[in-house]
Automatic annotation (TrEMBL):
Family of this protein: Belongs to the short-chain dehydrogenases/reductases (SDR) family.
Matches recorded under PROSITE patterns: ADH_SHORT
EC number in record: 1.1.1.-
Keyword terms: Oxidoreductase
Biological source species: Paraherbaspirillum soli
Enzyme class: oxidoreductase
Signal peptide annotation: none
Domain Ketoreductase: start-end pairs: 10-198
GO function terms (MF aspect): oxidoreductase activity
UniProt entry tagged with the keyword DNA damage: no
Protein name: SDR family oxidoreductase
Length: 306
């Protein structure tokens, strides 16, 4: 058995920590020495209502284990207040797990702008506001660990979840740039795409499956990404039921028309080659994406002209 990873001296904010995945993250961090801000608005799955009960319950559980935690009942849309709670109670913030979430599923044809906007506000704006308020504190102390919670629906799309897919993919984009901006200051940002039984996934998962996929199976990865020994940055991971894997972009060798004139007919003619994954590359940055295209011998900018 490996040495236990501890979080003594660290201050962690876990949003949406009153239930499901967030609760499991908060309990583990609290059990291992972190002082935890247990944030939860306490509303329903669709973003209605609010209550202090969910956050209070998890704070009580952490305290019963001998840990230290405070409740925060603000919506993640008031991210500055959540971070202020960490500063007021514990004087610092080291770890942010952006986990709060709701669903407002409907086919795109029936989706209202309200459904779109609420999902955007909780997932994307909420993650922005909490992380943005914590960012200067983490940068100035030269330490921070941020985890975004995305979804397979964001990565692959899912019927009835256009709003949620948009938001979850937005969080991946946010994390990609924050990883670049934070890395030099040891503020590392990663993203998990979990699968777990919860009241949220219970709306789209058969009950037997929801029971088998315990949130506890996701928390070890989230917690590792928050540990000082973890140097991963800008990663995207699928996790659930004990399975852990990393994702990356893959690009076909493609076809370069170079300086020859071409129109949609030539694109159609080369369609199979453009989509042929028998030879691939895995660009990890804008530079790795763009430079080979521009420097290709076929490119009008080629032969080292850029
Ligand atoms: P859950 O419903 O059990 O927990 C989410 C918590 O977020 C709730 O306690 C809720 O009160 C809180 N919350 C909602 N809106 C909030 C707001 N504005 N401010 C603060 N707290 C708020 O759901 P679950 O499954 O634990 O989801 C956690 C995260 O994981 C979500 O972001 C969800 O989209 C994501 N996720 C979950 C999957 C799963 O299989 N359970 C799959 C993919 C992603």
């Amino acid at each position: 058995m490996a040495d236990e990873l501890r979080y003594d001296g660290r201050v962690a904010i876990v949003t949406g920590a009153g239930n499901g995945l967030g609760r499991a993250h908060a309990l583990l961090l609290g059990a291992r020495g972190a002082r935890v801000v247990v944030n939860d608005l306490g509303g329903d799955v669709h973003g209605g209502g609010q209550s202090s009960a969910a956050a209070d319950q998890v704070v009580a559980e952490i305290q019963a284990m001998g840990g230290t935690a405070v409740a925060s009942y603000d919506s993640v849309e008031a991210g500055d207040k959540i971070v202020q709670a960490a500063l007021d109670h514990f004087g610092s913030v080291d770890i942010v797990i952006n986990n709060a979430g709701i669903l407002r599923d409907s086919s795109f044809a029936k989706m209202t702008e309200h459904d779109w906007d609420l999902i955007y506000r909780v997932h994307v704006l909420g993650a922005f506001r909490v992380t943005h308020a914590a960012w200067p504190h983490m940068r100035s102390k030269g330490y921070g660990r941020v985890v975004m919670t995305t979804s397979a629906a964001g990565i692959y799309g899912n019927f009835g979840q256009a709003n949620y897919s948009m938001a979850k993919m937005g969080m991946i984009g946010l994390a990609s740039t924050l990883a670049i901006e934070g890395g030099a200051k040891n503020v590392l940002v990663n993203t998990i795409a979990p699968i777990a039984g919860s009241r949220l996934s219970g709306t789209v998962m058969p009950p037997q499956m929801a029971e088998a996929l315990r949130p506890d199976y996701v928390t070890p990865l989230a917690a590792y990404l928050c540990h000082e020994s973890c140097q991963e940055n800008g990663g995207l991971f699928e996790v659930g039921a004990g399975f852990h894997a990393k994702l990356r972009w893959e690009r076909t060798a493609g076809h370069h028309f170079g300086s020859q004139p071409f129109g949609p007919e030539e694109v159609a003619e080369k369609w199979l080659e453009i989509g042929d994954f028998s030879q691939v590359s895995h660009p990890k940055s804008i530079a790795e994406s763009v430079m080979p295209i521009l420097q290709s011998a076929d490119s009008p900018f080629g032969h080292g002209k850029v």
